[in-house]
Design a protein that fits this description.
The chain is built from 3 helices and 12 strands. The chain is globular. By secondary structure, the protein is of the alpha+beta class. It folds into 2 domains: 27-198, Sandwich (Immunoglobulin-like), CATH 2.60.40; 199-260, Orthogonal Bundle (Type 1 dockerin domain).
């Protein structure tokens, strides 16, 4: 009996290991869901979700080379002639599993139930995975990540081609919030994915215009020193990419607010 249990544990460990290897080798970008972003136990963020955004825009090369260039702060959308639409198959979502200090504790749908909700989206943009019945096309659309048989979720983002067959030129975006429906973890900071081209300088909320929402975004990251590729809190606000949102960035964005 003991040998049998040991064998079962070994098989289970190998399955988890192989699954982790497959996820790690996926060539597409993913947001990885974890908790305790600083990795230090006993701090304020122990029970707060976060998204590891280190892969975000990794494949932003418009030539579709597949290389990890991080060339732009947006994803290009590629024309699909068969369906007369523009699309890209990233980013998706996954669980952070290679760092036990930041991985979620417990079992999905028992100890936590992670929900991914769209809270803002540009007209015409959708995100979907038809194989597992995911469709995000308007604010409020969501899916329960913890109910997925495989936490390594791919999404395809689509926009219909313009009626006049001109190249796609409009800015597109989708904004997500990730939260625990069972309440064990606090929600993660919201995250926005941008497509086609950069938003106007100063458009921190990313909605194609510069207004009070962008001021609030700036104040939320004011003087925070933790800008890094692992998060996107400073993605648009840190204009000079020095890891800090300060008067230099305020001056740069204020000029665009006035021009807007």
């Amino acid at each position: 009996m003991i040998r049998r249990l040991t064998y079962i544990r070994w098989i289970t460990t190998m399955i988890v290991f192989v699954a982790g290897m497959v996820m790690a080798d996926c060539p597409l970008d993913h947001f990885r869901i974890g908790r305790n972003a600083d990795g230090i136990p006993g701090t304020d963020d122990d029970q707060r979700l976060f998204l590891d955004c280190s892969q975000k825009y990794r494949h932003s090369d418009p030539n579709h080379s597949g290389d990890p260039t991080w060339r732009n702060g947006f994803y290009p959308l590629y024309y699909n002639e068969r369906y007369n639409r523009y699309q890209i198959g990233e980013p998706g979502f996954d669980l952070l599993s290679d760092d036990p200090s930041r991985a979620l504790d417990g079992l999905p749908n028992q100890d936590f139930r992670i929900v991914i909700r769209c809270i803002a989206v540009s007209p015409g943009l959708t995100a979907r995975n038809t194989a597992i019945n995911i469709l995000l096309e308007k604010p409020g659309d969501q899916f329960i990540h913890s109910s997925m048989a495989d936490p390594h979720v791919h999404l395809q983002y689509r926009v219909p081609a313009p009626e006049d067959q001109s190249p796609l030129a409009d800015l597109h975006w989708m904004r997500f919030v990730i939260f625990d429906e069972l309440g064990q973890y606090q929600p993660a900071p919201e995250v926005t994915v941008v497509f086609v081209h950069d938003p106007p300088a100063g458009d921190l909320w990313v909605d194609g215009k510069i207004d009070l929402a962008d001021v609030l975004e700036l104040t939320a990251v004011w003087l925070r020193p933790d800008a890094a590729r692992i998060n996107d809190y400073h993605e648009r606000a840190d204009t000079n990419r020095d890891g800090r949102v300060d008067l230099v960035d305020l001056a740069a964005t204020a000029e665009n607010w006035l021009m807007n």
